[in-house]
Design brief:
It is a single chain. This protein has 3 helices and 4 strands. By secondary structure, it is α+β, with helices and mostly antiparallel strands. It has a two-stranded antiparallel sheet with strand order 1-2. It has a two-stranded antiparallel sheet with strand order 3-4. The longest helix has 13 residues. The mean pLDDT is 89. It binds zinc ion (ZN) (2 copies). One zinc ion (ZN) binds next to loops.
Length: 110
C-alpha cells in the first residue's frame, strides 16, 4: 500500500470520523490540524444531551429522510451542529485556545 500524502492522510481520518456522525441527512466529519498534528475532531449531529439525529432528535432531518421536504429546505430548523463547529467546540473542551474571526474587523478571542 502506498504511503498517503498528508492531504490523503487527513482526509482518510476525516472519513473515519464521519462514521461517528449521527445525522440522517448529511453525515460529515472534520478534523482540526495544526503543524500537521490533529488537535481536534468533530462530526455532525444533534448537540450534546439531545437525542441523536438518527434516533429522531432532529425533526427536520427526519422529514428530509422521509421525503417530506426537499434537500436544502428548512435548514434553519435543523438541530444538528456542523462537524467543523463540533471540532472547534471539542477543541475548546480540551483546552485549545484560538482566535475566531466573524467577518468584521475585530476578531473575538475565545
Ligand atoms: Zn441531522
Ligand atoms: Zn437536522
Amino acid at each position: 500500500m502506498a504511503r498517503p500524502s498528508w492531504d490523503e492522510y487527513f482526509m482518510n481520518i476525516a472519513e473515519a470520523v464521519k462514521l461517528r456522525s449521527n445525522c440522517l441527512s448529511r453525515p460529515k466529519g472534520a478534523i482540526l490540524v495544526k503543524n500537521k498534528q490533529i488537535i481536534s475532531t468533530g462530526y455532525n449531529g444533534t448537540p450534546r444531551n439531545v437525542k441523536n439525529c438518527n434516533e429522531g432528535g432532529c425533526k427536520r432531518c427526519m422529514d428530509r429522510k422521509e421525503g417530506r421536504i426537499n434537500s436544502g429546505e428548512d435548514l434553519d430548523k435543523c438541530a444538528c451542529n456542523h462537524a467543523e463547529e463540533n471540532a472547534i467546540v471539542q477543541g475548546f473542551r480540551s483546552g485549545l485556545s484560538c482566535r475566531a474571526w466573524n467577518g468584521t474587523d475585530e476578531g473575538s478571542r475565545n
